[in-house]
Description:
The protein is an alpha+beta fold. The protein has one helix at about 5-25; strands at about 30-35, 40-45.
Amino acid sequence: MRYPLIATVVITAFICLSLLAFAWIKGDSLCEIKVKLAWIEVNAYSVCESVR
C-alpha cells in the first residue's frame, strides 16, 4: 500500500506550511527556527540586522 508514502508527504507539507505561516506572523523579528520531531529536524535561518 502507498498510504505511508502519502502520509509522509502530507505531514511534510503541513510542517512546511506551518513554518511559513509562523515566519509570516513573526515578520522581521524572525532569525531562526528549530523544529525537532522524533526523527525529523528542520532548521530555518534568515538574515537578521541588529538595530542600534
